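Hi F.,

I've been meaning to write this up properly since the lab meeting, where we talked about keeping a consistent format for the predictions we share between groups. The idea is simple: the sequence comes first, exactly as it goes in, then the structure tokens exactly as they come out, then a line or two of notes. No screenshots and no reformatting. I'm using this chain as the first example so we have something concrete to point to.
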Amino acid sequence: MSVVKRIFLGLFVAFYIFAGVRHFVDPDFYIRIMPPYLPLHRELVYLSGVIEIALGVLAAVPRTRKLAAWAVIAMLLAFMPVHIHMVAHPEQYPEVPVVGLWIRIPLQGVLILWAWWFTRPDTRRATGAS
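Output, unedited:
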């Protein structure tokens, strides 16, 4: 794995572990952005936090990295209706600037591409270089 990819892997792992921990540190923030049509807001916030932490840890392990990356992609796609709901109902989220609501949608695409990168095989040849 290239040095650049290793650095981005470290950031990826830290990002998802940190994001998951935030669900426990400030659950009310996530509860506030839950669409009203979803049940059990607090439980879903905690569950998604556990999943994000687990996927971050699994991404750190070479044997489970690809599976974790695909699971992150699935998770991000599953979260997309929440972002769309927020854009469609900005009055429900006055603490978030409207531009921030819109930025979250393409940001999901960037995060999906970042995870997808870790589903790809390394293109470096085994030449003995590290």
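Notes:
The chain has one domain: 3-117.
The helical segments are 3-25, 27-32, 41-60, 65-88, 98-117.

If this format works for you, I'll send the rest the same way.

G.
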